[in-house]
From TrEMBL:
It holds the Pfam family ARM_TT21_2nd. SMART domains: TPR. This is Tetratricopeptide repeat protein 21A/21B second ARM domain-containing protein. InterPro entries: ARM_TT21_2nd (IPR056832), TPR-like_helical_dom_sf (IPR011990), TPR_rpt (IPR019734). It comes from the Eukaryota. Residues 259-398 form the Tetratricopeptide repeat protein 21A/21B second ARM domain.
Length: 417
């Protein structure tokens, strides 16, 4: 009899768990594993966070990832950190309408961990008090929003889900800057996967703008500025295009200088500012870019984006030996874009032979998202064709790329080359 009632209890606990809202019930396993396999060397996602809510979600996601990979030892420590972040959120006035939902995601995650380590008493106590059904619109918005933040931390592997859930979050609650930001950031990711210079949708523009306008948060600010610059990547023939572009750049640099004057300490902000100053390519701005990068060096000297931008700074100031050195360092950190730049610049300066490097890249990034695999194969095809006049191999690699996804928008981009 006892066994039967134990089993019955077990089933009812499992049923209750399945109704909760947290990474364990968001069907993330497949994407998490892929993300883990490709992003081992890159920085932790903590550095991306713009507020305690984002930090909390990243922390709960790490808890999920640790339980999934049977690394229960670290979970207790992560849960303790998460609890501190939750307390910080509970004390902030701006979260008072959504805090119940945020608490739900925290306790739901904790329940799955307790189930894993068989702490049944504490588990039953929390399950007895947790409400998985009755939420206001603002709270529902927060549940979708929390989910979008967690998906967003999987970068390319989570961007589609992050967009879907952030749209729902914004629908339910227009007033949270973070949901607007997560939506815009992942729309940007989706577009840049196709081509770094692809057109910006009105939706992306609107949500970056709203996020910054509501919050005046510096992280949202630098993304907003970046979006404004990217709006003018595509040349068009309208008469006032050049004037509009110049006026836009001037305004962007002005706001960027204001943000820089307030001495930001978040290195992600400093990196984005450096990139804007580098793009202006004027001596004053180059000096500011160098100051930004010097500040980053003190905080995150091994960050792959930092190494990549140092390479660009040296390249722009004509110091090609240093530029090559930094491109190489960035490439060694699994920075895909930097590695392509390293091969391109290395070839232009006669420092390296592109083909062997590109062939090694295919191996190195074989778990990458399909768009990146297509980029590598197309680069190999073009290299065989242009540098080696080897049409047979060029055709073979072009076919390999086509086989991965014949409908990929990458082919539209390449044909124009």
């Amino acid at each position: 009899k006892n066994m039967a009632s134990d089993e019955h209890e077990e089933t009812s606990v499992k049923q209750k768990l399945s109704k909760l809202h947290c990474p364990f019930t968001w069907e993330m396993l497949d994407s998490t594993i892929k993300h883990r396999m490709t992003c081992m060397k890159d920085q932790e996602m903590q550095n991306n966070a713009s507020c305690p809510l984002e930090l909390l979600m990243h922390s709960l996601f790490q808890c999920y990832a640790a339980v999934v990979s049977a690394d229960n030892g670290t979970v207790t420590e992560i849960m303790r950190k998460s609890e501190e972040l939750l307390i910080e959120i509970q004390q902030k006035q701006k979260f008072h309408k959504t805090v119940r939902a945020i608490e739900h995601v925290f306790y739901a995650t904790k329940c799955f961990f307790l189930y894993e380590i068989e702490e049944m008493n504490e588990l039953e106590e929390i399950l007895g008090n947790i409400d998985a059904e009755h939420f206001t619109d603002e709270e529902l918005g927060a549940l979708y929003g929390c989910q979008s933040v967690v998906w967003s931390s999987l970068n390319d592997f989570g961007m589609d889900k992050a967009v879907d859930t952030a749209k729902k979050a914004v629908e339910k609650n227009q007033d949270c800057a973070l949901w607007h930001f997560i939506l815009a950031k992942n729309l940007r990711r989706q577009r840049r996967v196709i081509a770094l210079s692809s057109d910006i949708s009105d939706m992306e523009k609107e949500h970056f703008e709203i996020a910054y306008a509501i919050s005046k948060n510096h992280v949202f600010g630098v993304y907003y500025l970046q979006m404004r610059i990217e709006s003018y990547y595509k040349f068009n023939r309208e008469l006032d295009y050049k004037q509009r572009k110049a006026a836009n750049e001037k305004e962007v640099i002005r706001i960027a200088k204001d943000i820089f004057k307030s001495k930001p300490t978040n290195y992600k902000i400093l990196l984005k500012l450096a990139r804007m100053f580098l793009r202006a390519n004027l001596s004053d701005e180059m000096q500011l870019a160098k100051e930004c990068l010097d500040s980053v060096e003190k905080i995150a000297p091994n960050n792959s984006t930092y190494l990549h931008y140092c390479a660009m700074l040296y390249q722009q100031s004509g110091d090609y030996k240093e530029a090559i050195k930094y491109y190489k360092k960035a490439a060694e950190c699994n920075n895909f874009v930097a590695e392509l730049s390293y091969i391109q610049y290395g070839w232009e300066t006669g420092e390296l032979e592109p083909l062997p490097h590109l062939l090694r890249m295919v191996k190195k990034y074989n778990q990458s998202i399909t768009e990146r695999q297509i980029v590598m194969l197309l680069n190999i095809a073009i290299t065989y064709y242009t540098l080696h006049k080897d049409i047979a191999n060029a055709a073979e690699y072009f076919l390999k790329a086509l086989t991965i996804d014949p409908l990929s928008k990458k082919f539209k981009v390449s044909i124009q080359v």
